[in-house]
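Quick one:
INPUT:
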């Protein structure tokens, strides 16, 4: 029974990883692709490794450390890459309504 639960959780993680891949292929600009990839791969990896914990409890400590590493590094690295892309001037899609970072930078320039 415990292996079935692990298999289901691992399958759910694999599905999220696959959906992240589809998001990267289907989204219109680099910022949307980055968001789709980061959110889906973070959740997919966490679920995948959690499912593996059910199979090999001897690996539980290492996998929990790996899960914590993913939780802390994926969003931070994605944020840094998005800021760098915006700073370099990579354009948003035409459907984007608000560019809050550009507005913030313009307000800072006006205040100086």
């Amino acid at each position: 029974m415990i292996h079935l639960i692990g298999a289901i959780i691992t399958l759910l993680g694999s599905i999220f990883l696959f959906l992240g891949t589809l998001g990267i292929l289907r989204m219109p600009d680099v910022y949307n692709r980055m968001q789709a990839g980061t959110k889906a791969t973070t959740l997919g990896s966490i679920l995948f490794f959690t499912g593996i914990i059910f199979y090999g409890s001897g690996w539980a400590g290492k996998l929990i450390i790996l899960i914590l590493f993913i939780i802390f590094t994926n969003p931070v690295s994605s944020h840094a890459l998005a800021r760098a892309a915006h700073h370099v001037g990579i354009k948003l899609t035409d459907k984007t309504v608000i560019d809050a970072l550009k507005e913030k930078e313009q307000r800072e320039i006006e205040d100086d």
